[in-house]
Amino acid sequence: MNAKLADRIATAIIVAVSGFIVLLLAGLLGYIMVRGLGHFSYDFLTSPPETIRAGGGIGPQLFNSIFLLVLTMLITIPLGLGAGIYMSEYARPGKFTDFIRLLVEVLSSFPSIVVGLFGLLVLVNAFDLGFSLLAGALALTVFNLPLMVRITEQGLKSVPREQKEAGLALGLSKWKTIRSIMLPVAIPVILTGTILAAGRVFGEAAALLFTAGMSSPRLDFTDWNPLSPFSPLNPMRPAETLAVHIWKVNAEGLAPDAAEIAAGASAVLVLTVLLFNLAARWLGRFMYRKFTATK
Amino acid sequence: MTALIEIENLDLYYGDFQALKSISMDVPEKAVTAFIGPSGCGKSTLLRSLNRMNDLIAGTRIEGSIKIAGEEINTSGMDVEHLRKRVGMVFQQPNPFPKSIYENVAYGPRLYGINQRKKLDELVEKSLRSAALWDEVKDHLKRSALGISGGQQQRLCIARALAVNPDVLLMDESTSALDPISTLKIEELVQELKNEYTIVMVTHNMHQAARVSNQTVFFLNGEVVEYADTETLFSTPSDRRTEDYISGRFG
Ligand SMILES: Nc1ncnc2c1ncn2[C@@H]1O[C@H](COP(=O)(O)OP(=O)(O)OP(=O)(O)O)[C@@H](O)[C@H]1O
Ligand SMILES: [Mg+2]
């Protein structure tokens, strides 16, 4: 067989495989959208769910998902950045550092249901947080943090060594070099990774069943005092997220339109994650241009 | 000529490997000193010892003395950041910061406390002029430094180093990644700069050393083989190995 023919066959196979995957994804996405979009309305997105009657919405769940995401990110971003910077720039290479890195890897590949049960035992019971947004956020931190550490490390490693040396050779301290030369270069990578990680948090259900809980109190969207029990902002209240809601409606929904609600909620979930991804790209590029003054 | 840098019995080890062996030499002030020698003989290592960039490499050990303007730099108490401000460096690959042209030059001065817009503007212009780049970039100082040519980037890096007003400028094969015209520009620039700065350059290009430098040091396997006036070293080398090397018989 000559090289040209081999090349053609290989190309054809690769194109076929990629095409198949794209079709599969497009089909899946299309299916979810077609089934769900019909159910979209302002009312659906904002009103609370109904238990037995038709016409319930997903307002509180959508809010819970977003709020939980914000809480999780508030915890993970500073911790992950700090640990990532340490691992990439300060930790001496050696057995101990490799060991920490291994632990981080293992942590990030924990099955989420295990993390959920861990959260139930430790956060909800031992630390007495109860079913709460805070417990949920901390459980999500367990697998989001390793991701964040790795993203930060990768981001910093992607900075050309020459630029780091340029900073140091100019008389900048190590921290100053990291902060003002390396981080700006790394930020697009870190930001993109962070938003993708956020997408994962948004879709998580299993880890939240036993930590953030499967119910929401009747939220009072006029009460924004984080300490009052019916305030949407109270981090100590239980909160059912969108992903958990989909699971619950599918498993034990009594409302006559349970299937439509699940489909609608799924579409919302997928769309949101899609938006996250688009935002990640756009923001990453925007930041890169801003920090590097390139067009 | 007075010596600005005095190196005495300098040994440097990367782990078990001794990269510099008992180096002693004086680098004269406001002149160009060239380091030549085959790959791996320790030129960069010695150059990077002068601004303590070898500190970044884990496992290096250094013995002996380096004095710059009479001050010993190989002490734990040495303010390395201040040292690096006095001893600027230009690398082999142009490495501008991914910022605008202006910001690249203004970065150092700002770090050292110059914040007035007018002062910065002046300094940026002066440094860019000194680096023979001003005329080419003065109309788009806000553009990314990554968008200009390699030769321009390298001159920008020189301007960036000059902006903090160093005494010494180290150049490690700073023209080897550039085209002949850019190389020539930088060589001319070095001729200008030696009136104000002490320049130490590493080069693989024998002609460049002969054209540009006042003193030349020939290294072999971590040792100084010969150190002389450039003219003397290239016309009547006193060591057989130097002669072999400059006539292209090895290396
Ligand atoms: N980080 C390092 N760890 C261990 N050995 C090193 C390190 N850097 C350099 N060396 C060794 O030290 C010796 C001198 O290296 P150096 O980079 O100073 O050579 P050089 O003369 O600049 O060579 P070139 O002309 O190729 O740039 C070489 O044998 C090199 O292998
Ligand atoms: Mg070298």
Structural overview:
The complex is a heterodimer of chains A (295) and B (251). Chain A has helices at residues 3-37, 42-46, 59-90, 95-108, 112-126, 133-157, 161-169, 174-203, 206-209, 242-252, 258-292. With 295 residues, chain A is mainly alpha-helical. Chain A has two domains: 1-39; 42-294, MetI-like fold (Orthogonal Bundle). The radius of gyration of chain A is 23 Å and the shape is globular. Chain B has helices at residues 43-49, 80-86, 101-111, 117-130, 134-137, 150-162, 180-193, 206-212, 230-235, 240-246; strands spanning 3-14, 17-28, 32-36, 60-68, 71-72, 87-90, 168-172, 198-202, 215-220, 223-229. Chain B has a six-stranded mixed β-sheet with strand order 6-7-8-3-9-10, sandwiched between helices. A four-stranded antiparallel β-sheet of chain B has the order 2-1-4-5, with no helix packed on it. In chain B, helix 3 packs across helix 4, helix 3 (101-111) packs parallel to helix 6 (150-162) and helix 4 (117-130) packs across helix 6 (150-162). The radius of gyration of chain B is 18 Å and the shape is globular. The model of chain B has no long low-confidence stretch (mean pLDDT 91). Residues 14, 17, 19, 37, 39-45, 57 of chain B line the site of adenosine-5'-triphosphate (ATP).
What features would you highlight for this structure?
heterodimer, A: 295 residues, mainly alpha, MetI-like fold, 2 domains, globular, B: 251 residues, alpha/beta, Rossmann fold, 6-stranded mixed sheet, 10 helices, binds adenosine-5'-triphosphate, binds magnesium ion
